[in-house]
Amino acid sequence: MAFTNSSLVTYKRLTSHCTKNRNHAIDTITIHCIVGQWTAKQGCDYFATTDRDCSSNYIVGKDGSIGLSVEEKDRSWCSSSSSNDHRAITIEVASDTTHPYAVTAQAYAALIDLVTDICKRNNIKELKWKADKSLIGQVDKQNMTVHRWFAAKACPGEYLYERHSAIAAEVNKRLGTVAKPPVVVTPTQPTTTVDVAKTIWDFFIGKGLNACAVAGLMGNLYAESALKPTNLQNTYEQKLGLSDSAYTQAVDNGSYTNFVKDSAGYGLAQWTYWSRKQALLQYAQKVKKSIGDLTMQLEFLWQELQSYTSVTKTLKAATSIQVASDAVLTGYERPANQSDAVKVKRAGYGKKYYDQYASSTAKPTTPTASVPYLVKVDASVLNIRKQPTTSSAITGAIKDKGVYTIVEEASGAGATRWGKLKSGAGWISLDYTKRA
Ligand SMILES: [Zn+2]
Questions:
Q1: Average pLDDT, stretch 210-238?
Q2: How much is the pLDDT for 375?
Q3: Residue of 11, 46, 220, 309 with fewest CB within 10 Å of its CB?
Q4: Cβ distance 406 to 371 under 8 Å?
Q5: Residue 80 alpha carbon to ligand 1 centre in Å
Q6: What is the pTM assigned to this prediction?
C-alpha cells in the first residue's frame, strides 16, 4: 500500500527515532498529550534532537500548527507498544503539564482536522471508541487506543481521554459515516438498576442476615452511593477532574496512584479513610477484580463489617429496619450528620428495598420436619409474627418459657427457620427453641 503524509502539515522535521517501514497497515489512531504547551516546531525539534528513544508521527501545537516527525510509512516510538505503533498513527498534542492535561481550542480543532485527514487517506471509514482496553487489536470494534493501556502513564490525560467519544463522533460526521442514533438512557428513581439492588439484597440474605437487617444496610448504602460501586464522591469528581468511570479505570490500570491517600469517598459504602481504602484496594488486587467491581466490594464490606461487632450483633437480631439502619449509620458509616432526620431518611430508603424484596425472599417452603411436634421455648419473651418473612407481630409475645406445639414449619429471611404455633396461629423463630 502506498503511504502518504498529511498535506495539513505546517512544519516538517523528521527524526531518526523511529523504525523504518511499519509492518502493518494503518488501522488505528493513538492520541497522546505531550505535557507541554508547545508549537509543532518545538515538538518536531525536540524529537529530532533528544537522546531519548521517543517520537510520534505527528505533533499538534498549541497554536493549531501540525508537525510531521515520523512519516506515516514508518513506525514511531510513541505508545510503549511495538504492535500498536506498527499499526497506529500516533499524534502528540500540546497540553498543560498538570492534570487534566488540557489542550487549547486551536490544538483540539487541528487534531480533529488531522485525524479526519488520516482516516480519509488510509481508508479508515469510521472511528470507533469504547474505552475498553480488552479490545486492543480488534479494530472492527475499536480502532482508537491510548498510551495508558500499554504503560503506567496518565497519557493522553483526562482532558483528551474524556473527549475520545466526541473526537470520534466529530471525525465520523466529517467522514460522512452515518452514526447510529445514540441510546438515550432516561434516569429513573432509584437510579440503580433492579439487578444491582437485587444482587446486593441476595448477597446479604445469603450471608444469613434477615430482611430488616439487609434493608437497613441497603438504605445506608443507597444514601452513600446510590448503590453505584464505581461512585466517586462528587466533590472529588470536580477536584480531580475525573468521572466515576475514569477514576475507576485509572485506579485499575495504575495510572492514578493516590487512591489510598486522596481522602475521596469511593464505592458502595463511600470508603474514605486511608486505611479502609488501602484494605479495599489490597482486597481488589488479591482477588484480581476492578476496584469498582460490585461483588468484590460486597465481599470486602462483609469482611470489614465483621470487625464492627456491635453493629453485626444488632443486625443479626434486628426486628425493624429502623434499628438496623441506625446501627449501620452510627456504628459503621458514621457520616458527619447522624441527625434524626438522616435516620428517618435512611431507614426510608431501606423500606423501599424491604417492600420490593422481602416477600419474595422467603416463601414458606416444604416442611423439613413432620408436624405437629413440640418445642421448648427457652427465651422469656418471643414475638409471634403474622408471617415468617415480616417483622409485624400479631398477638404480642410469648412471655412464658414452656412447651408449645408447632403445626407447620417454614424458612424465613436469611435461612432462619420458623414454626407456626397452633395457639394464636402465629409464627415463632425456631432459633430459640429445642425439640421438647
Ligand atoms: Zn503518550
A1: 94
A2: 77
A3: 309
A4: yes
A5: 8
A6: 0.45
